[in-house]
Amino acid sequence: MKKNMFIAAVALAAGVLFLSACERETDPETPNQPPNTAVANVPNDSSLQRAVLTFYWDGEDSDGFVQYYQYRVVSYLEPMGIVDTTEWKDTISTTVTIPVRSDAEENFQVFQVRAVDDKGAVDPTPAEKPLFTYTTSFPSTQILYPGQGEKMLIAETITDWWPGIPLSFDGVDTDGDILQYGWAVDGGDTTWTTDTAVVIDPSLFDEPLDGQHTILVTCIDDTYLMDTVGKKITVDLVFPSFDKKAIILDATDESKWNTAYSVVPTDDEVDGFYQLMFPEADQYDLKENLNHFPDIATLGQYQCLIWHSDHYPSSDPQRSPIHNYVNQLRNYMNVGGYFILGGHLILKSFNWSEAGPWEFSDSSFVAEYLHIFAADETSSLWLDFRRGIPNPTNEELPYTEFYIDEAKVKGTYVRPPGVSVYGLNSVQLITAPGGFTEQIFQYDNDPASNQFGPRMRTVALRYYGTEFQSIILGFPMWFVDTTDAIELGDEMFRHLGLNE
Prior knowledge:
By secondary structure, the chain is mainly beta. The chain has helices at residues 2-22, 267-277, 296-299, 326-334, 365-369, 406-409, 482-496, and strands at residues 36-39, 48-49, 52-60, 66-78, 82-85, 89-91, 95-99, 106-117, 127-133, 140-145, 151-153, 165-172, 178-185, 191-193, 197-200, 211-221, 231-238, 244-250, 281-285, 302-309, 338-343, 358-359, 372-377, 387-390, 402-403, 428-433, 437-444, 458-464, 469-473. The chain has 7 helices and 29 strands.
């Protein structure tokens, strides 16, 4: 009995002690301590820097860990009296490269960074890096193509050859680099790109597409300064009508004629010859129009453009000016215009600085639109090319052979030994035609000629594409016998489907 009473007493005492312990207050929880932040000494404090800056920092938290960081820049711009403070930006990194505003005469920058710990506490005294920056200049923009007020031919629908309206541009930043370009049409949204050439989808222009439209290009440099003005042009988009047969573009300059190998014709004689060759064609004299290319809207009325540069160029200033007009020619052909091209050293005119043989890059006009990847020329010393022989594979719609008119080429240049008749010198040979082409005529000379290399080589080529066709003659048409030339003009039109 006494034992049981003892046990009960002990239990009662333990319970009292337990209850007493439960009622005792615990020590208060230690308050969360904010983190600390330190910025590296690169760049040096108060140093003069370019307005694109790289900062490094670190942080610690004595009772937790750093969750992320926040940084901003305070820019003091004098003498304008402007204080420009950016918003705090979050990052988990311990370094950042940023541009700062630096468009005043004096620019004092304070970079601030602060750590944020796992409980959300923020370093109340951000680490700071004070320094100065050079005055930055705004970038400027220019549009390379098209030009202000330029007319451009357009198609009803996008095709492989006409994907839209081409636009090329660039910019200048005197104290840095261009970061991005932005372009917009008709006041619409800006599209940003790092490219300097784009093709604009026609659906982005306001309706109607046929008519005047605006194109604006601007740029941003690597300090995030933007060309606030940009470059704005107006273009005139035109649907071609192709309601006329052909136009002859006369680039033959009789004043540059080389009298050493031929009789100099008058301009009227050359014009009359081509009118006989293409009786339904209108004529446009490049010289009389001060080398101004025909208005592209006017050109869009014609199904075919015929170009001739029949004088013999002995120097760069005398060469055919066709290389100056490749943008217009691309535009015309992309929307379905046909092209016939002939002249003395006509292929060399695209690559005058190099001696033959020539290779033409895939992106060149000669390769893309004439489908010729390599060419050569015959000797300038020998008046040797006497006849164009039709390619025998053109059986379905054959061409007729033609002869050079000897009366037009007599001069002080000489014929090959043993040859009694005069021909043409410096004939262009097409040595690497591209796909979808037919070789029209081959080179032929007098059987007694010792110039064997050019014999039976291709001197005329036709490209038949999905949107346009072209014919290139590696010789000046003026020197073809007039009767043969009339037949040649008719046959070229028939092959192009222009006599239907």
